[in-house]
Write a structure and sequence with these properties.
Elements: E1 6-8, E2 11-15, E3 26-29, E4 32-35, E5 41-45, E6 49-54, E7 56-64, E8 69-79, E9 82-83, E10 87-88, E11 103-104, E12 108-111, E13 114-117, E14 123-134, E15 143-152, E16 168-170, H1 189-200, H2 210-218, H3 229-237, E17 243-247, H4 251-260, E18 264-271, E19 276-289, E20 295-300, E21 321-325, H5 326-332, E22 333-340
Helix pairs in contact: 1-2, 1-3
Length: about 350
């Protein structure tokens, strides 16, 4: 068993840049797995990893691909003394009609992007496999930089000391409103948040509404949705960033990331004060601790615009930027994050 890839008990991250053991027909090139010359396919199967017992996991990966190559990642879990089958997240190629496929066996169920252990049991181990493919020998190889697995652990807490963190953090992230896009605007909170993140990172994206373009690239043609968490993070990794789905268990953990790493995208649901939502993605750009000890979470919410009656303190209509009281944020935040390095 090998466990030194756990950044935290709930976050596994295998980067291939310092890897010693290569898979079949794979080599390292500039810190990424690629297919050997004169081969159409290469694969790697991980060791078995023992984990803190978990009820769900989300696997994601960072890779650059195009229409002529792909990466497929699959995972299986051990429940009690039995192993599930391998569940595939399906071959993924940037710029093609990627699709997720729900699947199940008698131990676990893959629903869009979440693998859930069945019958109120817990998984104790996992193992994954990656397959890189290209259509022709002359096509460039897909490039795989990392595999991430984040765990949902029952009755678990993870606290981070925030005593040395600054009282104010706020990144100037470009503001985009999903409702500006016709027809699909109500459904593209996730790719709009990703577009804001990519623009913050310096990407020059095409079109007057670049989030419309990104939404179509990240769309899940299997479950017919824009909000597949894994497709959105692997989509951002297609621009060359290490990006993956994370799960956090306290605001201080999120606060530490904001202070030390940068903005982050989060999944929310409930009453945000301005409106209510069953499920939504938005970008957290910072926080501020007030003199009275209260904390405001600074967000770019792609759904907020002038159609709401509230205004800013200067009387200007709302547009994307908003400050949420911490207690409101904690009520709506689901713990899921998109991490982009």
């Amino acid at each position: 068993m090998i466990n030194n890839f756990f950044l935290k008990p709930h976050q596994f991250l295998m980067r291939f840049k310092d890897f010693k053991t290569l898979g079949e027909n794979l080599i390292l090139d500039n810190d990424k797995f690629i297919i050997e010359n004169n081969k159409l396919e290469g694969s790697y199967e991980s060791p078995i990893f023992k984990a803190t017992p978990f009820s769900e996991l989300i696997l994601s990966w960072g890779a650059t691909t195009n229409k002529h190559n792909s990466v497929e990642v699959m995972v299986k879990v051990k429940v009690e003394d039995k192993w599930s089958k391998y569940f595939s997240y399906q071959p993924w190629s940037f710029g093609t009609k990627n699709k997720s496929v729900d699947d199940f066996d008698n131990l676990a169920k893959l629903s869009v992007d979440e693998l859930k252990v069945l019958d109120d049991k817990l998984g104790t181990h996992f193992q994954f496999k990656v397959i890189l493919r290209r259509n022709k020998i002359s096509d460039v190889s897909s490039r795989l930089s990392l595999v991430s697995i984040t765990l949902k652990i029952p009755n678990y807490k993870y606290e981070v000391d925030d005593k040395l963190l600054p009282t104010i953090v706020d990144y100037e992230v470009p503001k985009l409103n999903q409702q500006r896009v016709s027809e699909i605007g109500n459904s593209i909170c996730s790719p709009t948040s990703c577009t804001m993140m990519l623009m913050y990172k310096g990407e020059k994206l095409e079109g007057e509404q670049p989030h419309e373009h990104i939404a179509k690239l990240f769309y899940d043609h299997g479950n017919n949705m824009f909000g597949n968490w894994v497709f959105n993070t692997v989509g951002m990794s297609s621009y060359g960033y290490d990006s993956y789905v994370g799960r956090m268990y306290s605001f201080n953990e999120l606060k530490y990331h904001l202070a030390k790493c940068g903005p982050i995208i989060v999944s929310v649901g409930g009453d945000l004060g301005v409106y209510k939502t069953n499920g939504h993605l938005l970008l957290v750009r910072g926080y501020k601790v007030l003199e009275n000890g209260k904390t405001l979470v600074i967000i770019n919410d792609p759904n907020i615009n002038e159609r709401f009656e509230k205004t800013y303190q200067d009387g200007m209509p709302l547009f994307v930027y908003y400050e949420l009281p911490l207690e409101v944020f904690l009520e709506v935040w689901k713990g899921i994050t998109y991490i982009v390095e």
